[in-house]
Design goal:
The protein is mostly helical. Helix content is about 40%, strand content about 5%.
Length: about 110
């Protein structure tokens, strides 16, 4: 979910309160040229397809309403760096300290 509108964010936060869940406001951000490149690359890999194509992704990024209470997470670099930044913002231990869960190989 993009939660690009303030109305959607308010609704999500209210739902979290109603079900006694934690709510973390993290706003992923990257330059438009990075978004364009990533969205174009997704369509070359069927398993990574997104509902958003380049046109939709750029429009969402440009029309997103301000979110001053959301902690900005720089997603222009690697996923690992973004996760590290998010865990720091959330006050969690670094991902490297999390226990590894076993993974099953696909059939």
């Amino acid at each position: 979910a993009s939660f690009a509108s303030a109305e959607h964010r308010v609704t999500a936060e209210a739902l979290a309160r109603r079900v006694s869940a934690d709510f973390a406001a993290l706003r992923c951000a990257a330059p438009i040229d990075v978004l364009r490149h990533r969205l174009a690359a997704r369509h070359r890999v069927p398993a990574a397809w997104s509902d958003a194509d380049e046109r939709i992704g750029v429009r969402l990024a440009r029309e997103a309403e301000k979110w001053p209470s959301g902690a900005e997470i720089d997603t222009a670099g690697s996923a690992e760096k973004a996760v590290e930044q998010a865990t720091t913002v959330l006050g969690l231990e670094p991902l490297s300290h999390w226990p590894r869960r076993p993974q099953m190989a696909p059939d």
